[in-house]
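step 3/5: co-fold with magnesium ion
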Amino acid sequence: MMNRRGFARQVAVSAPLMAAMGAMAEGGQQAGSTAAAPPPGRGPMDGSPVGDMLPGQKWRVHDRGRTQPRKVRPGSPVPTPSAPSDATVLFGGKDLSAWRGRARGGVEGEPRWKVENGYMELVPGAGSLVTKESFGDVQLHLEWTTPAGADASRVGQFRGNSGVILMGRYEVQVLSSYNNPTYPDGSAGAIYGLYPPMVNPCLPEGEWNSYDLAFEAPRFDGEKLTKAAYVTLFFNGVLVHNRAELLGVTSREPIAAYSPHAPELPLVLQGHAGPARFRNIWIRRLRGYDG
Ligand code: MG
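step 4/5: write tokens
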């Protein structure tokens, strides 16, 4: 079970997102609207406010002045490998049997994402998805897209926002980032609030992107961190994080920090602004050499 510090941290992480979601709901967005100008509070750089200075960097969390990741056109086709024999298939195109749903406030129940045409889709108000199984060190493959034709007034963090949240704590961002500027540490492929992707290989809306990710879970000895978490990410076959060291649980303010947790925890797909679709999701536990 999560201790009080962990819970407080999670609340701190969730609060700005929930506030943003509340602002969205209050915005009275018209379904199917094609207005080009975003409403007040919904511009390219809107979203979670600027946070604390990042240790070892010259930027603040969500720094609007940070250098935008350079655009790169990925090779073709982008990697879409089927699951190796020792992988756990989390979504094979048909059902959400590997997942539970998680609503605001952390209440878990039946998953409410839509499944059709071989993908699953984050629909407004559907909450997050949480794997039934728990994982620590992993290799993860998934494919995602933000559907074309979504409301053009939804920009920045409000366009296609979801996320791959490792151990329910460490978020790799999913966002429509082909032509949708936002604060760089919140763009697609970012380790949210810490590192932008080194480059931006995101494809246009409607085209499928792929993430091939290696994650090393943090280690703790009681309350003490003995090894940080690390993320390596190939985004459409392009390396965007090379064993990046995480500062801790995704957070804006106070700055990310670790809080002890179990060696294995569920993977979460974030219920945020969406819409976002996922397919071909599989995960492998990493057992190291001679394992
Ligand atoms: Mg997100």
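step 5/5: annotate
The domain at 85-285 is CATH 2.60.120.560 (Jelly Rolls).
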